[in-house]
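QA checklist item 7 of 12: single-chain prediction sanity check.
[x] sequence parsed
[x] length recorded as 273
[x] structure emitted
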Amino acid sequence: MLQNAAVGRAADAARFPAFHDSVPVLLYHRPQPAARFRAQLRRLHDLGFETITLDRYVRFIRGEAVQLPRRPILITFDDGYPTAWRTADPVLARYGWSAVMYVPTGYVGEPGFLSWDELRQLQASGRWQIDEHAGNGHVLVTADAAGRQLPFYAAELWSDGNQESFDQYKRRVRSDIEGGSAALRRNLPGWKSHRSFAVPYGNYGQRGSNDSRIAPWLAHYLTNRFDVVFIQRDDSFTKPGESLANRIGVPMGWGADALEEHLLRGLSGMPPA
């Protein structure tokens, strides 16, 4: 029976080419149904994928000499949902794999989000690394007199008939990011930035803003502060030197077959279906 299982896994892995110069990064938000998540990770395992830690991934992006498995993958979660942790952690433990939790610190301890004590448990497990998703800035804000809503980082605020200045916008965003890092440092023993950041909504102004100066300024600010800044574009794998790095969003409806299909598309450079 064990021999047959090993033969089956070898056949699965043969379907997916090995690759050495790129890393796919998966993004999960709301928790998948437990059975579906187990099936996805079982498929990744059978295809020969192995997770790498965030630290190793950041070194890879910096272009350092890093030993990678034949089919490396980085698994990330945004927003700090307890159910995502509880669904994912037993499956990660089964395979001896790791993952990353990107935390908007302003939500920690709120109903439906991890508490600081739970984040300390998560960090102590050795399976998870934690980095910043925002301070209080994982929200939409009013961007104009018509009430248009845009991400906190992507637009200047409109309030009481006035739009904040570009300088005020820059101070607000810098303060939020610095405050988020300070909260992680203050509440998680031994925490230090892994020099990665996940932009809320994947939008630093490039997908809509009320000031054309925001996208180039924020991209420059973030890539100078962090070695890796995660956004979402398509199914493409990431390569060294890509400081604005793509994550493959995994919707709730994907099963294991869909995940494999999108990874194959990303590896081959095919356009989205």
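[x] summary fact logged: The first helix runs from residue 2 to 15.
[ ] second reviewer sign-off
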